[in-house]
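Sorry to interrupt, but I need a hand with the structure work. Leave the record below and I will have a look:
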Amino acid sequence: MTIHVPSQGVYRIDPVASGIDFRAKHQFGTGTVRGSFALTGGAVVVADPHEGSTAHASADARSFLSGNKIRDRKVKSKAFLDAETYPEISFASTSFRQTDDVWRLGGILTARGVAAAANFTIESLELEAEDIVVSATAKIDRYAHGITAARGMAGRHLWLTVNVRARRQD
C-alpha cells in the first residue's frame, strides 16, 4: 500500500479522470458482475492533523454500466436504483483514521435516497504534481439502501473501488 500524505488544501475531483468500479455476485453466488459508475464531482479537503481531513463525492446512478444492456436497464429501473427519481449517489465522510498501517475513511453513502454507513479502506494515495491520486475500496450492503429486489439472483453486497484524481485548488 502506498500512502503519500499531500499538503493541506482543497483538491477538486476531476470527473473525467475518476470513476467507480464495482463487482457483485449474482445467480445465487455462482457468477460475478463487474461494471462502473461515473463520478460527477466532489472534493478532498486535507487538514492538519490529517485525521481532520474530509471527502465528499457524487456519482451518476444513470451511468451504471455492466456490459449487459438488459441488466443495465433493470438496475437503473425502479426495482433497483430508481435512477430517474434518484439520479445521484453521494458520499460524505465523517471520519478519517489510521489503524496500524491502514487508513480508513468512514462516512455516509446515499443511494436511492437512503443514507447508510460506508467505510472505505485507502489502498493508495499518491502525489502527482498538483494532483492527488487515490484508490479506495469498500463493501456496500445494498439492502441498507432499501435495494432488495431479486434476492438470491442479485447479490446483497457490492465491492466498490473508487479511483479519484483530484487537483489542488488555490
Remarks:
- Residues 35 and 82 are 18 Å apart (CA to CA).
- Strands lie at 2-3, 9-13, 19-26, 31-46, 54-65, 88-99, 102-111, 114-128, 131-141, 154-169.
